[in-house]
Specification:
about 130 residues; mainly alpha; 2 domains; two-stranded antiparallel sheet; 5 helices; 2 strands; about 60% helix; rod-shaped; transmembrane
């Protein structure tokens, strides 16, 4: 017994640590820890790949939408705006003017003025064009 203690004293810390780690019981613990760590990292990798693909598909969709918007950026549409029922056509300028200067108009007022992208709408028709329609 005394022989083991004298050899243990001569061994350095590194050698004692390696001897402890290479025994069966600690080796089994380290193996179990490494397997668990591998499984956690594998699941994390799968989740990251899934989210990466999903983000790429969303980016592709946004790129396609941006291309469509670029082709239509000069067109203004008010399809999302809601208007009150329009008033009847105002015919004041029909009677006092003649020819191409005679026109009728009506005003479409917004239901909700909080939306900054919407404006009141104003329709105006030449009376001479309306006569040809009828």
């Amino acid at each position: 017994m005394s022989r083991h203690t004298t050899t243990d004293n001569r061994r350095g810390r590194k050698e004692r640590l390696l001897r402890y780690l290479l025994r069966r019981k600690p080796c089994a613990y380290i193996t179990i820890f490494e397997i668990a760590l591998f499984l956690v990292l594998a699941v994390a990798l799968i989740v990251l790949v899934y989210f990466n693909r999903r983000l790429k598909s969303e980016i592709d969709i946004l790129d396609r939408e941006n291309k469509v918007l670029e082709t239509h950026n000069n067109m203004i549409t008010f399809a999302h705006c809601q208007y009150e029922r329009p008033t009847d056509y105002n015919t004041d300028f029909c009677e006092s003017r003649c020819g191409p200067t005679a026109f009728i108009w009506r005003h479409h007022k917004l239901k909700n003025e909080r939306d900054k992208t919407c404006l009141d709408r104003h329709e105006q028709f030449s009376k001479s064009k309306l006569l040809f329609r009828e």
